[in-house]
Amino acid sequence: DAKTTQPPSMDCAEGRAANLPCNHSTISGNEYVYWYRQIHSQGPQYIIHGLKNNETNEMASLIITEDRKSSTLILPHATLRDTAVYYCIVLGRFGNEKLTFGTGTRLTIIP
Amino acid sequence: GAVVSQHPSWVICKSGTSVKIECRSLDFQATTMFWYRQFPKQSLMLMATSNEGSKATYEQGVEKDKFLINHASLTLSTLTVTSAHPEDSSFYICSATPLAGSTDTQYFGPGTRLTVL
After folding, report:
1. What is the pLDDT of residue A99?
2. A44–B110: do the CB atoms touch at under 8 Å?
């Protein structure tokens, strides 16, 4: 699976959009970009995933660059409950592939 | 939908005893479940891949005789930490992928915090 690079930490003001970047320059054509988050002392929570088109769901938006070498997860209106570690993971389509978690980005929402 | 539960949520045991952790997919069937371990301030590390009806596949460095995994049904996988020692104290998390349907991602349980005294 392709390696990902994320900033170790970010702050965002409550109510503002949180933009979390991820670099995955070695991604292959059939690999997807997945985002999970882990709130302290809980199991990871699936957020969103995409291949090459931008995706949006009730939790977030995922913007993938045209060359697919990087992506940005956008939380449109961050709340205090969005404080968590966010993981960007690249892997094949099927959910039964094992996930390799990097160090992620620790997002802190500031009141 | 797609809820995964773990039991117990936390456990404290004496050194040398064995502890069993259950992982259940509540509203879906899963042929594959994964077990992860997470030490404080570290990321999740995959321990093993559990397939229903077959032996688990362990990651390098994970002792299969110490961490026994049983996946007897499409909704239940268990992890038994045998002869636990203080260094086994950790946060254990399972995940599962629905057998069929449009989803193609893994859903995680809430985790089990093991403390070995």
Report:
1. 84
2. no
Can you say whether residue A104 is alpha, beta or left, with left for phi > 0 and alpha for psi between -120 and 50 degrees?
Answer: left
Nearest to A103 among B43, B110, B111 (CB): B43
- Taking the C-alpha atoms of residue B111 and residue B51, their distance in angstroms, rounded to an integer, is 19
Cα-based torsion angle of the residue sequence B43, A65, B104, B52 in order, rounded to the nearest 10 degrees: -40
Residue B7 pLDDT class (50, 70, 90 cuts): very high
Q: Tens digits of per-residue pLDDT, B62-116?
A: 999 999 999 889 999 999 999 999 999 999 999 998 876 545 678 999 999 999 9
CB spacing of A43 vs B43 below 8 angstroms: no
Of B15, B9, B4, the closest CA to residue B85 belongs to B15
